[in-house]
Amino acid sequence: MSQSRSPQEIRIQNEINHKKIANVHENRATEILKKVRESKPQIDIERGLYFTKSFQKTEGQPLILRWAKALKYYAENASIYIDENQLIVGRSGKPGRYGILYPELDGDTLDEAIKTLPSRDVSPFDITPEDAKIITEQITPYWKGKTFHEDLAKALPRETKKLTYNGDKELTSRYIVNETASFRSSLQWVHDYEIVLEKGFEGIKEEALERLQQLDSDSPVDQTEKRPFLEAQIITSDAIILWAERHAKLAKELSAKQRDADRKKELKIIAEICERVPRYPARTFYEALQSQWFTQMFSRIEQKTGTIISNGRMDQYLYPFYQKDIKEGRITDEQVQELFECMWVAMSEFVDLYLSEAGGSFNEGYAHWEAVTIGGTTKKGYDATNELTYILLKSKREFPLNYPDLAARIHMGSPKRYLYEVAETIKDGTGFPKLINDDEVVPILLSKGASLKEAYDYSVSGCAECRMPNRDTYTSPNAYINFAAALEMVLYNGKMKKYGDEIVGLETGNFEDFESFDEVLEAYLKQQKNLIRHAFIQQHEIIRLRGEHFATPLGSSLHKLCRESYKDLHQPSIPGGIDLGYFEFIGYATVVDSLSAIKKLIFEEKRLTKKELLEAVNNDFKGYEAIRQLLLHAPSYGNDDSYTDEIGQLLDLEAQKFTHKYGKELGVHMDLRLVPFTSHVPFGKVIGATPNGRFSYTPLSDGSSASQGADLNGPTAVLLSNYKTKNFDYEDHAARLLNIKLSPSCVEGENGTEKLVQFIKAWHDLRLWHLQFNVLNTETLRQAQKQPQLYKNLLVRIAGYSAYFTELSKDLQDDIIARTEHEEVS
């Protein structure tokens, strides 16, 4: 191991050697965390059970009303817990780490899934025999024939279905054109928390009651559309108020029994706060944080949001409460940090449960992204950093947990102190914060129809995306497309090695018959276009069907445009909204490098024949190592080499051209995105050896990062390749996720911090969307793989989130180890 270590590595070594752990403060949250980390996630069935029972009683009623009544039924009947020593209360499952069920999504598969969940390799869950029996006998039977998953599978045309699911088994993905809509009911999302803090749910309810009285009793629209919306808003408000009041009652009961005077007083305060919020407007920082948490947790009960409901701009909407409390001497910075960390550890107890094989493999390490956005600009365009910004950064350095995800907005006026504290936090080595570039994101949002105020006030949501509360309205999950499959279809004339003699794609001709690279490229672009075409067909059906299966009365109550139009957020179109969707380009560098190698070695230098290449990849390079080495040393993306970057820019352009033309038919900005989560691992498992020297069924490249180990000219060259492969004259693109792995030695000390700040500025000036770091020695990762019991608290950055290294599959661990560890920042 190299002499220099990141602070995280030093902490891990001290744990191994039973030494005092420096740079980590001890408080109640760290004590709670120690217990949480020891527990294996369990399935809590109450949400699934109570929703099922409620839906059985409300057949035939408007869907949004059924959903609201199910939330009310849950609030009345679900078990309520207050954890020992916690200051922030409200959970949607049993003590410890837990996941909950959403049978409306894939309840038809529940009985099969629970047989494998406890023993599966990726993100396993335990379940009691009693709960398994309830799932089999009470929950699954009701949902069979009613789920979104079943309806979507029936609706897809045969050719689209062939690229989506495995044969007749529509439970498993083909990992070619992968729909994600059947294992989450919404894309990532950010609520307008300010309306809750300013009005409370009593205020939201009173507004709905007033509007209900104003409806025209003779109007069919008012009575069949507007009335159910308002009634659902009222019922949902009552539900969350009741839920909070039940916590207040429990806190009182626990306080009466408590012998410890300090805890007795804390429980009494908790009871008083839960009686106040989220029913009424918050008055203090503590009330505001508890109100936000109740809202966030009840949202998890309402629906399965992809990557979880995000926290939004906490350093902005909580700042007035912080300022007031500090001025009046009611709170200290240390108490603020402890309250935040009580919330963080509560987040870590909720585990996002994916029943499907694809869902679990896309989100390894129990991933969820309650992104906290810091920095950026105010609605007027001025710098927004404040004292809370720095408390949140400090908490990330001192509280070793992967929740929440921290996203730092960077703009041209970001203060020097902010940039340096961001750099110091990155140097800690846990992968936080990820960086989002205002000077890329704001112009893109403006091009989609946002006002300056709306664009300046965006929040990071999910992995690398951005949301404008009260303006964004698109929630339909989108397709992940395996473009390495398109490449393989070129090599095998529409076939894929994984699927034998079946014609999966287009028959674009025998590879050996192509006489020029232009013919190869033309064939590839046809295959790429065909996959995108089927993704759009898929999306058309998803948009059409979702409103028949999902409603979000809570989310709609918190959205200004939904309240104004009386429309549920999951309906296909909300008047005045901006619909921002996307599709994923999985395997970008794998494809670019492969095409580059074909062009260079076969058609230009003629060092290989087409037959030799096909034999080598068809045999997974066994007996063809010399050819593999030629391919590995061909020009590769990520090295500031125009030879490959021009190919990458063309693939990006052609994808954007398609969506620019046909996205309008869907009524959505269907943008090109390069954000794989961990899907590049399972997608790689259906792809044979590729002409960039990659072995069969190993991970594809991730996001807009270089192929594993191919970036040889330093991290600045990676930035430049990213820059040169973009098409800035098109607006039909969204996030590009970029991973950079640095040796701790290259950012050591004040000089290292300065170099990292300058690197961040270079990334910002190039107008790249996203950037994140692993600052770890590769040898540490290898040791953790060999001795997982000693490295259970080692955090690594994956794809827009961090996770515990030892909770990842070996394939993903190997992928992270294989990333280039840069020894210099410049």
How would you describe this protein?
Keywords: Lyase, Organic radical, Transferase. With 826 residues, the chain is of the alpha/beta class. The chain has a domain at 155-181 and 473-714 and 727-735. It has 34 helices and 21 strands. A six-stranded mixed β-sheet has the order 8-9-10-18-17-21. It has a five-stranded mixed β-sheet with strand order 5-13-14-15-16. β9 (406-410), α19 and β10 form a beta-alpha-beta unit. α8 crosses α23, α11 (220-257) packs antiparallel against α12 and α18 (387-398) packs parallel to α19 (416-427).
Shape: globular
Helix fraction, binned, reads: 40-55%
Class computed from helices, strands and strand pairing: alpha/beta
Mean of all residue-level pLDDT scores:
94
Q: Uncertain regions: pLDDT < 50 for 5+ in a row?
A: none
Distance between the termini: 23 Å
Radius of gyration: 26 Å
What percent of residues are in strands? 5-15%
How many helical elements?
34
Strand order of the largest sheet: 8-9-10-18-17-21
Question: How many strands, which pairing sense, and closed or not: the largest β-sheet?
Answer: 6 strands, mixed
Q: Compute the number of strand runs.
A: 21
Modified residues (Glycine radical): 800
Organism: Anaerostipes hadrus
Keywords: Lyase, Organic radical, Transferase
Protein name: Formate acetyltransferase
